Amino acid sequence: MNTQNNIGHRQRLREKFLKSGLDGFHDYEIVELLLTLGTPRKDCKQSAKDALKKCGSLKGVLEASPSDLKNISGIGDNNVFGLKIAQAVSRRYLADRIIDKDFVRSSDDVLDYLKHNLRDKNREVFLIIFLNGRNQIIKLEILFEGTLSTSAVYPREVVKKTLENDAAALVFVHNHPSGNPNPSQDDLTITKKLKEAVQAIDVSVHDHLIIAGNDVYSFADHGLI
Question: What is the CATH number of domain 102-218?
Fold first, then answer.
C-alpha cells in the first residue's frame, strides 16, 4: 500500500471511529489504529494482524510485554507506546470512575476495574480499597507485589495507610496468577492478621477479594471475614 493510500485508509478508520466509536470494528482495526499513533505514515494493518495472531486477542495484545510486542515485524518502541498508553488510560478511567461511589452499589464497576487491572498480572499484587464512613471509595492503592505470604504483608503498613486515608473500612484485594480463585492457607492467615490489626484502630474489613482471571472469590460471601 503506497503512502497516499495509507493516509486515506487511516483517515477512513478515524472517521469511522469518531462517528460510531468501536462498533463495527474488527479487533485488528483497533490494534491498527493504536499502532498508527506511533507510526502515522506507515501501513500497520499486517503488523496488527500479526500481533493478534501471536497474542490471541485484543486483550492479549494490550497486556503483552513491550519485548514481546517488539518481536512482531513492524512494531517498534513508538508503536508500543500507542498500545500501552491506551491500556493505561483505560485503567485510569475505570479507577477514576469508581472514586466517591458507594462500594456495594457500584460493585459491578469495582469488579470491572479489578479484573481489568489484575487478572493478567504474572505476579501477585495486594491492593486495598479504602472506604469512608458512608462506604464510599476514597482510594485504591497497591501495597505489595510479589508472592503473597505472611512475611510479605506488614500489618503496620496497612494501619499506616489506613490512618493516612482516614478510612473507616477496608476491602482487601489480591490476584492469583495461577487462575485458581480459592484462598490458600497463607491467604486465610494474612486476612485474619490484618483484620485484627485494623480493628485495633476501630476500622472494619468488609471483604477480601481474590481475582483469578475472570473469576472472583469473596471471603465475605463464604463467611470467612
Answer: 3.40.140.10
Element (H, E) at 170: strand 169-175
Q: What are the residue ranges spanned by the domains of the chain?
A: 3-94, 102-218
Task: Please give the grid coordinates belonging to residue 64.
Answer: 503483552
CB neighbourhood size of 7 (10 A): 13
Question: pLDDT truncated to tens, each residue of the chain (225 aa)?
Answer: 555 566 677 788 888 888 878 888 899 999 998 998 877 677 889 999 999 999 999 888 988 889 999 999 999 999 999 898 888 888 888 888 889 988 888 888 888 888 888 877 878 899 999 999 999 999 999 998 876 655 577 899 999 999 999 999 999 999 998 889 999 998 999 999 999 999 999 999 999 999 998 899 999 999 988
pTM recorded for the entire structure: 0.72
CA distance 198 to 172: 12
State the alpha helices, DSSP H only, in 21-76: 27-36, 45-55, 58-63, 66-70
CA distances from 13 to 62, 79, 82, 121, 198 (A): 19, 17, 16, 31, 52
Per-position b or e across 73-89, b if 16+ CB within 10 A of its CB: ebbeeebbebbbebbee
